[in-house]
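Fold this sequence, please.
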Amino acid sequence: MMRPMAAEEKTDRRALAARINQLFVDLWVESERRGPRYDDFGLTVQQQLVLGKIVDDPNITSKELAEGLGVSQGAISQHLARLEKDEYISRQRSPHDGRVHVFRLEKRGTAFRRVLRRYDQKLFEAYAAKLSVSDMAEIESALEKLKRVFEG
């Protein structure tokens, strides 16, 4: 059984949580400053996330997209329809399972993929070359723990 937290410990935890939250914001702002100009694509953040998942795995299903992004399948269908209409992707029946669609990147989707790859490279150059493997493993471990807390 956990012991009740002392007032001082609660204060310390709140201060640390606030600092962690601020660091996430600072990292996001800095990565956006260094990152690609997504506004050239005219996509919402959710559409960018969906397209990014498709870039990573063209065989991903709409159900997996919905689960991975924590949104409804209806929302995913709307995002996919917009991405298809704006010629970022096309959908085709899987040659392995005719009940499932696979995605193909079209010209605009390929351009988006190039921007993502350049962004990944810039981020890598910004921190990976300056941190040790053990530092990176420690950060990854801490972030995985935090993610599990949120998934809860």
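The chain has six helices and two strands. The helical segments are 7-34, 45-56, 62-69, 73-85, 107-128, 133-151.
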